[in-house]
Amino acid sequence: MATAVLAQADHVATWLSGQPPSAWRRPSVLPGWTVAELATHIATVLASIPATLSQPTGDRPISLAGYLATYRRVADQILERDVAGAAGRSPAEVLAEVYAQRDGAAAAEPPTSRAVRAPRGPIGPADFLVTRAIELVVHSDDLSRSLPEREPVTLDRGALRVACQALADILAERAPGRSLELRVPPYAAVQAVEGPRHTRGTPPNVVETDPRTWIRLATGRLTWADAVKGGSLQASGARADLAPWLPFL
Predict the structure, then answer these.
(1) Helix-then-strand count for the chain, H and E
(2) What ranges do the domains of the chain cover?
(3) 8 Å CB contact between 142 and 38
(4) Residues 193 and 211: beta-carbon distance below 8 Å
(5) Contact in structure between 57 and 118 (CB atoms under 8 Å)
(6) 137-170, pLDDT tens digit by residue?
(7) Which fold has domain 2-155?
């Protein structure tokens, strides 16, 4: 897990290092954020790894889905924090912070406790690293979409697999059942959605899409309607509509 997180951190740091100062001042695809502010957020994501893994707790950990659900209510605070963190700093200074926090994350010792005290509640150490993989994959894609004329940030296969599978598992948790199969080849496949049970073979309802589309759907970067209209997913069956459960964060 940590290997995938660090690999994606390396990809985004390398990409940022190749951008001119003018690109850092550009608005990102996330409303209210510039590229520089989004890079600052990535440094914060990396800084949270050693800070959190060093805080074991005896509290009962909340689920990955429950932890990610807390993001919505603190979104404005996160934006305010990282906009302030980027203020007055040059691209070189922000980039140096990204590299420094990547090195700090690499040096973090894996805890032996059942849970750690994360910014938004107790969570299992492995699950916390999953949240870091999701953040890095999602924001790498955000950066790529922010500067579409440039080569996109490379998405590490391991980090992309972790993110896709985790978000698919959240769908199965939030919409339990076996009437629909979500396929995100080659990384994930889960059955979900309450309805008539099948006992053999493929469920009567199938949704299939590529990893980038699934990540964007699950994190609110793309609507279900736009994905269907754009042809980036295939949905078959009367219950093959995931719009009621999306996005997760």
Answers:
(1) 10, 7
(2) 2-155, 175-245
(3) yes
(4) no
(5) no
(6) 999 999 999 999 999 999 999 999 999 999 999 9
(7) Four Helix Bundle (Hemerythrin (Met), subunit A) (1.20.120)
